[in-house]
Amino acid sequence: MTVLEQPGSYRPTPPPAWQPRTDAAPLLPDAEPYRVLGTAAADGLDPELLRRLYGRLVRGRRYNTQATALTRQGRLAVYPSSTGQEACEVAAALVLQEQDWLFPSYRDTLAVVARGLDPVAALTLLRGDWHTGYDPRERRVAPLSTPLATQLPHAVGLAHAARLAGDEVVALAMVGDGGTSEGDFHEALNFAAVWRAPVVFFVQNNGFAISVPLAKQTAAPSLAHKAVGYGMPGRLVDGNDAAAVHEVLGEAVERARADGGPTLVEAVTYRVEAHTNADDATRYRSDAEVEAWRAHDPIALLEAELTRRGLIDDEGIRAERDAAERMAADLRDRMNEDAALDPMDLFANVYAQQTAQLREQAAQLRAELAAEQQPEAAESAVEEPAREASAGEASGQAVGRAAGRPAQGPRGSQASHGSRGSQGSQSSQGSYGSQSSQGERR
Length: 442
Description:
Order of helices and strands: HHEHHHHEHEEEHEHEHHHHH
Number of strands: 7
CATH class of the largest domain: Alpha Beta
CATH architecture of the largest domain: 3-Layer(aba) Sandwich
CATH topology of the largest domain: Rossmann fold
CATH superfamily of the largest domain: Thiamin diphosphate (ThDP)-binding fold, Pyr/PP domains
Distance between the termini: 73 Å
Strand order of the largest sheet: 1-2-3-7-6
Strand content: 5-15%
C-alpha cells in the first residue's frame, strides 16, 4: 500500500484545464511587411500628407549628407547617418501630437529635427560641445541615447506616469535592431505590457548591429513577433514606404492614446551608409547588396507615387531640392562658427544640488582656469570654493540631523531627485515630465 492509498491521505485533484492568458492570434504581425506605395491602397492616400512627407524626406536626405560632410571636415566628432532610413525618421516625428514625447537613439537626429528641434542643437552632442544640446521639455524630445536601448525604460516610465496623472500623452521610443538584444528592451516591453502603458516601440531593422547581421542576433521569425511574448501586438512594415510607416505608427499611437496599451512596430529598412564615419562597411557587406537597397530608396518610391498621381512635377521637385539646399547651407554656416564654450558648464545642470565631489572638482577647475588668466588669482580661486564646499557640507549635515536623518558624507550625497536619468527624474513638485529644479539640460 502506498502513502496515497492509505485512508485519509491527501489526494491531489486534477488541475483545471489550462487556458492561454491572452489570445495570441490578434497580436501576430503580418507574414510580409505592410506596404502602401505601389498598391491599390495608394490611391486613397491624402495628397497633402504625401507632399508633406516628400518634402521632409528630401530635406532629411540633404541633412544626412551635410552632417556626414561636416564630420569629414572635423566639425563633428562622429555622425551615425540615417541615409536610407529617412521614411522611418520623418514618419516617427509626424505622427506625434504636441504633448507627446519622442525618445530617440543616437542615430535618430533626423527624427529630432523633424520634430521641430534646431538642427544645430540636435548635432551639439555629436559635436562634443554640451551634455545634450537642447532642453528636452522644449519639444518633448528626450536626450539622444548612445547606450543601446536605455531610453526604452525611460519612455515607459514617463508614459506610465502620464497615464496615472490622466494626461493624454503617448511616448514613441525608437531603437535599432541591435538594441533588441539588450536587457533594457526586455524590461521595457514587459513593464509596458503589464502596465498597459501608452508607448509605441519603434524598431528600425536596418540589417546590422554595427557589423553583426540580424541572423546572428535572433532566431525569431521577425522582431515584430517578439511582441507576442509580452502580450502586445506586433506590426511589420516596409520601412522605406513612408506612407505605410506613417499609417502603421499613427494607428499604434492612437491605440495607445485610447488606452489600448503598447505596440511593437518593426520597420524593415536598410542603413545605406556605414555605421558611423569610423566604420568600414565593406568588411561585412557587398556593394551589390547596398545597390539593391538603393533601388528601393524611400525618396524615389514616394516621388514615383506623387508623379503618377500628378501631385508633383519637375518644378515642384526642384523647389523641394532648393529648399533642402538652403537648409544645408544654413546648417553648414552655423556649424562652421566656433562655439563660445565655458568649461565650468561641465558641472552645470547635472544635479539640482551639487555633490561635495563635484564642488571640489569645480573648485579645482576654476583655479586652473584662473591660473591661466591671472596666476596670482589662482590661490584665492581655490580657497573660496573650498570654504563654500565645507560650509555647504556642514549645512547639509545640520539639516539632516534636524530632520532626524543620519548625516551623510560626500560619498552618500545624491541629487535631490534621487535619479540620474533625465527622463526618469522628478522635480521637487513631482511632475513626471520635468527635469531638475535648475532647468536641467542633459
